[in-house]
Give the backbone structure.
Amino acid sequence: MTNPKNLENWLHEKAGPAHDALKADPARAVTPDQVRYTLAELLAKAEAAGGYPLPPEQREWVDAPAVGREWPTCEALEADQERARLHDDAMAEAFRKDPAYAVELLNSILEDGDQGELLIALRQMTKAAGREMLTPFDPAEWLTGAEAVAAFLADAEATADPAYIEHAHQVAARARTIHGLEG
């Protein structure tokens, strides 16, 4: 079991000050338009760096049909590997890099009142703090509706981890029993 004090310290030392600074000076925020690039801008950057268009030998390899379950490892396809990471890992990294985003997302979820989404975000934030679990608790107690159970199971399925999926089904069964939900 992990020490919730470490998560609390992370929230107080990183997430809280970032949120307070953003709240005090909203002009510090980066707009979506400042972050997003158009495809033309990305291609122009790649072309300037000499990475686009691909040399003919790489283009031939990229366009070749798959012959099995191989996974490309060439540098030109690193972006594909990045997308293949588990969503939780990517979210945990995003929360570590930008605690203000973690606070903003958590506030948005709390405002919407979606318990399933809240549990998912808390798990990801716990991972961001380097912990597997905050305190011993039964998530089934918080899965009070069919939608929350469905979201919880969908998230588990997305991990493709058989042990976690089995555990999630056990939690869902407990939630249905505790709250009298139909399965």
Q: What stands out?
A: Residues 4-24 form the longest helix (21 residues). The mean pLDDT is 76. The CA atoms of residues 52 and 117 lie 39 Å apart.
